[in-house]
Amino acid sequence: MTAREAGLIGLLLGTEEDWPGAFEALVSRLGPVDGRELRTERIVNEPFDLRYHPRYALVIDRLAWWYDLPRAWLKKISLMDDVYLLNNPFTFQAMEKHSAYCAMMRCGIRVPETWLIPHKVPAPFAPFEYMAAKIPDVASRYNAPFDLNAIGEHIGYPLYMKPFDGGQWVGVTRAGSPEELHAAYDASGQRMMHVQAALEGFDVFVRSLSIGAETMSMWFEPSKPLHDRYQIRHEFLTPELGREIVTISRLVNAFFRWEFNSCETIVKDGVAYPIDYANASPDVALTSLHYYFPWAIKALVKWCAFCVVTERPMRINQTTRDYFEVGDHPSLPYEEKLERYRQLADDYLQVEAYEDFCARHLAHLDELAHDWFTSGEFDHLLVQTVVTTFPEHEHEHFIAHYRGLLAAWAADDAVG
């Protein structure tokens, strides 16, 4: 029988090296947190006895959303061993973007008009490929003919076609005419798609990264290259809009039991429209977040420490009825619903207890992090990240680029 190691945080990784290296460095420098030593370990995938007892107190999962071997292991250690997981593998598997849209629509959130359309080329789930021979007969009998032009006209152009369960902008197409809509549908093949109203001419596109009880709302430019999408702008939202967007982000996370997630919201004419918020393996790359990267790593360290040291219980089950009772209430105005959702979400995330914990036990983290993110060790990580991300002829340019952005963070952090 393997003994649980009270302060051990497991990292379940794919190919990432930047944020794990930064996370490991900060955790190793923390020292005892309320008398408990924390340490990290990278997890390897191997056969396991379903009755074995894992050593980890908490696991950060960055792999199981696309690889089923670790997903099976995560379900075992959650159901049988109460290991705390970021994120919940059950809702992450079941609640793809389509389910997330449906849930938030019922909650009364302003999701743009969205239709689901059948596959252009009907196909079974990948594990059931042996049923493929039956699909043409099933589709011919029960997939009703539909008028894609009529759907496009109803929604209005321009619009977007995107996979109902997609991510990382793969398969997303803007259609400005019926011809472009048909071309996008023809190219979609076996992927089931959403057709969603476009919100163009907007005020700002916001991407909010939520880690536990903290959220950072950032100005995002989706049309720019990956390294230049997050813009360094402060106080670009009114206090009211800023609170609304953070509330929606927390609502999503509390509802789905995700604590490491990003939410995309378009603000148009002063109104917030969430368009994508099932991103429970969010982008935290140094080359993407740059200026905001230290905040993300600090927030992740703090939330993991809080969950491990306080022995916060893993919540597998959702309490959807609590949220739907608010959403279904016929006389509650939108603003009142938001406030009730905020209370539900803050209670789930234990915001007050978290803030008190950080003030009492992690007050030294800001200075520790500032010292590390301005150190030669971090600069080495930055250079290695650039070298492994960009082609050789761009190395010099991007090393200087990211050094400049992190220097700007360090200067602002020192003032703050």
Describe the 3D structure.
- The protein is α+β, with helices and mostly antiparallel strands.
- The chain has helices spanning 18-30, 68-81, 89-94, 97-106, 135-142, 148-155, 178-188, 239-256, 286-289, 293-309, 320-327, 334-349, 351-361, 365-373, 376-389, 395-415; strands at residues 8-12, 39-42, 58-61, 84-86, 114-117, 159-163, 173-175, 193-197, 204-211, 214-220, 230-231, 260-268, 271-279.
Topology:
Layout: E1 8-12, H1 18-30, E2 39-42, E3 58-61, H2 68-81, E4 84-86, H3 89-94, H4 97-106, E5 114-117, H5 135-142, H6 148-155, E6 159-163, E7 173-175, H7 178-188, E8 193-197, E9 204-211, E10 214-220, E11 230-231, H8 239-256, E12 260-268, E13 271-279, H9 286-289, H10 293-309, H11 320-327, H12 334-349, H13 351-361, H14 365-373, H15 376-389, H16 395-415
Parallel strand pairs: 1-2, 1-3, 3-4
Antiparallel strand pairs: 5-8, 6-7, 6-8, 9-10, 9-12, 10-11, 12-13
Helix pairs in contact: 1-10, 1-14, 8-12, 11-12, 15-16
How helix-rich are the residues, as a percent range? 40-55%
Shape: globular
Strand segment tally: 13
Distance between the termini: 48 Å
Q: Give the strand line-up of the largest sheet.
A: 11-10-9-12-13
Biggest sheet overview: 5 strands, antiparallel
Low-confidence stretches are none
**Which class best fits the helix and strand makeup?**
alpha+beta
Q: Which percent band covers the strand fraction?
A: 15-25%
Average residue pLDDT: 94
What oligomeric state do these chains adopt?
Answer: single chain
* Whole-angstrom Rg: 22 Å
Order of helices and strands: EHEEHEHHEHHEEHEEEEHEEHHHHHHHH
Q: What's the total helix number?
A: 16
